[in-house]
Write a structure and sequence with these properties.
By secondary structure, this protein is α/β, with parallel strands linked by helices. The protein contains 18 helices and 11 strands. The protein has a 6-stranded mixed beta sheet, sandwiched between helices. Strands 2-1-7-8-9 form a 5-stranded parallel beta sheet. Helix 12 links the parallel strand 8 and strand 9. The radius of gyration is 21 Å and the shape is globular. The protein starts with a helix and ends with a helix.
């Protein structure tokens, strides 16, 4: 059924009287994975470009947090537990030094990859005499279950290093420039399911840019893309919820309440981009005594904040902001490949570079064939 619907949406898109060039941004690693793995770009009109945007929380996790997590693992009698992608993200230190959590583990530090916050709680309860540090990086959909576990009760032997980020402020930053970075937006369905689709109303209402909330199947993405393109042709920018069965008005009230209970909204640094207003989650004062940044402040290196750009020559920041395609980075496919990534966009399963590589787009020539 979804294949048949996908074909119908492709035909409908080709029938639209579109401008000579249309740029539509998506801001979800899951969307980008579907677009790439299903080959959707190859079946669209050649003048329609879909730009991967800020959909990878691992990619923008500030370097000072990665550095601190590594130092805690190396110099404290504690186990650092974090989501699997974080282990391979490199910091900007000399190659002779420990650059990743994975290398710290190889050097004997206790570093454990996890898939769920529950694994931290289980490990802490099973080993009450040991100390654990939960390094949590993620967008709203990750931080909501993190908040739920913290609100239920934080084990006495668990400290928190929180690097949570909010999605919409990055898009707002892009649109605050002199020139619109894109002509249409596909909004992330999973974030909207938590926070409500209303968060994205500013895109059409303030900036006049067509928008649609999308699910993750190819037919759902094509439905949202058709909505955005039709709005563009008809010059009627709105926010259309094309994922209504999973995204209710107002989002998930309980998840939002838990986020508000545990976290406060703070200005936050994004690696390679800078500090974005109201873009991060910080622990509320009730949890300050368990804040790893405070507890291990002596291990922090303030210069990391000044050195928090991407590694030399790495274009990850521009990829995250939709300014360049992965294939336009000078390191892509040369010194930066999945087995030896230079930048975080080639590490994470939500990073556009890693997704494009897995999808077979290995060079600028591969990309040009899609838009020839």
């Amino acid at each position: 059924m979804s294949d048949a619907k996908a074909r119908e949406w492709i035909e409908a898109i080709h029938q639209l009287d579109l401008p000579s060039r249309v740029r539509v941004m998506n801001v979800c690693g899951g969307h980008e994975r579907t677009l790439s793995m299903a080959g959707i770009r190859s079946v669209l009109p050649k003048n329609v470009e879909i730009i991967p945007g800020p959909g990878c929380p691992v990619c923008v996790c500030p370097e000072e947090d990665l550095y601190l997590a590594i130092q805690i693992a190396l110099h404290r009698d504690a186990t650092v537990m974090t989501f699997g992608d974080m282990l391979r993200v490199p910091t900007n230190v000399p190659k002779r030094e420990v650059r990743t959590l994975e290398q710290a583990r190889a050097a004997g530090a206790r570093v454990v990859p996890i898939a769920s916050p529950s694994e931290v709680w289980d490990a802490a309860m099973a080993n009450p005499s040991e100390r654990f540090v939960f390094f949590a990086a993620g967008f709203e959909t990750t931080m909501a279950p993190v908040a739920a576990r913290i609100a239920e009760g934080l084990p006495e032997n668990v400290d928190l290093l929180i690097s949570g980020r909010r999605t919409w402020p990055a898009v707002a930053t892009l649109l605050a420039g002199d020139r619109a970075a894109f002509d249409g937006l596909i909004a992330p369905g999973h974030v909207a399911a938590v926070m409500g689709p209303e968060e994205w109303l500013f895109v059409p209402e303030t900036h006049g840019i067509p928008s649609a909330v999308s699910g993750f199947r190819p037919d759902q993405l094509l439905s949202a893309l058709y909505s955005v393109l039709r709005q563009l042709v008809e010059k009627t920018p709105v926010l259309e919820n094309c994922y209504a069965h999973a995204v209710p008005a107002g989002g998930n009230a309980q998840a939002r309440r838990l986020l508000d209970t545990v976290f406060e909204i703070v200005d936050a640094p994004w690696r390679g981009i800078g500090t974005l207003p109201e873009s991060g989650y910080g622990l509320r004062p009730a949890y300050a005594a368990r804040d790893a940044r405070v507890l291990h402040a002596d291990l922090a290196d303030e210069s990391r904040k000044r050195m928090g750009e991407m590694p030399a020559g790495c274009g990850c920041a521009d990829v995250v902001l939709g300014r360049i395609y992965p294939t336009e980075c000078a390191l892509y496919g040369t010194t930066c490949v999945p087995r030896s990534p230079v930048g975080p966009c080639m590490v994470s399963d939500e990073g556009a570079c890693r997704i494009w590589w897995a999808g077979g787009i290995r060079s600028p020539e591969d990309l040009r064939t899609l838009h020839a």
